[in-house]
Amino acid sequence: MIVRYLVTNGLTGASLLVLLAYIIVILTAIVLHELSHGYVAYLNGDMTAKAQGRLTLNPLKHLTPIGTLLLFFVGFGFARPVPIDPRNFRDYKKGMIATSLAGVTMNLFLALINSICLALVLKFGAWTYVESMDASNYFTLFGYALFFYGMHVNILLMVFNLLPIYPLDGFRVVETLAEPDNKYVDFMYRNGRYVLLGFIILMYLLSWLNIPDLFDMVQDLATMIFNAIWGGIGVGI
Questions:
Q1: pTM: predicted TM-score of the whole model, two decimal places
Q2: Are 38 and 166 in contact (CB under 8 A)?
Q3: Active-site choice (34, 131, 175, 179)
Q4: Residues sharing a CB contact under 8 Å with residue 123, sequence separation 6 or more, in sequence order
Q5: Is 34 a catalytic residue?
Q6: What is the pLDDT along the chain (237 residues), one digit of tens a residue?
Q7: Residue 208: which of 71, 4, 11, 9 has the closest Cα?
């Protein structure tokens, strides 16, 4: 994603500014995603994340090298999961579902906020794609890149984490609602990491071969929704 942009445009002042915006987006999206898990678990009675110092905005407490690199190369990735102990929840099922969906809910909220800010940049600044903007207008360029990627990265993280593959958030919801002897849950516990690795490799290959994949379709859909909402004030991407 951002790596392809840098390869195409080179290490210019404008491209480095875009890289800075992307880094800010990644740190914000990941940190708030994980913090949301820990905080909602805390609200449901589990102090594990708080006791281990994970209820913090410090990105070093949440990032993993591989998960972060994937965000730069593929456009989606993962962080170090916030530790929880469901036995501490006052209501197990309610606590598990709320905690599991807290991160993706935060990503959806961030995507909405970034879409509003992007609409304002497009309305009152130079509006066009980052790749073709006038590099001399660095303030508008930075704002466009920050909110454009802020919207798309958070949407991608939300969709990625909703996949029902162990150990993603979507799987935790399925596991909570399923019967104890569910075969899919058992299969995922045994093979989910390999399934997830295969999925990531497939998305990476499709991305570099310029073949549309699931996340391309999600981004296209997000762009269509954005244009449909904000087209009335004369902006679009």
A1: 0.84
A2: no
A3: 34
A4: 233, 234, 235
A5: yes
A6: 565 666 566 567 677 888 889 889 988 998 999 999 999 999 999 999 999 988 988 888 888 887 777 766 665 667 788 899 999 999 999 999 999 999 999 999 999 999 999 988 888 765 444 445 455 577 778 888 899 999 998 998 899 899 999 989 999 999 999 988 899 999 999 999 999 889 888 887 887 787 777 777 888 888 888 888 888 777 777
A7: 4
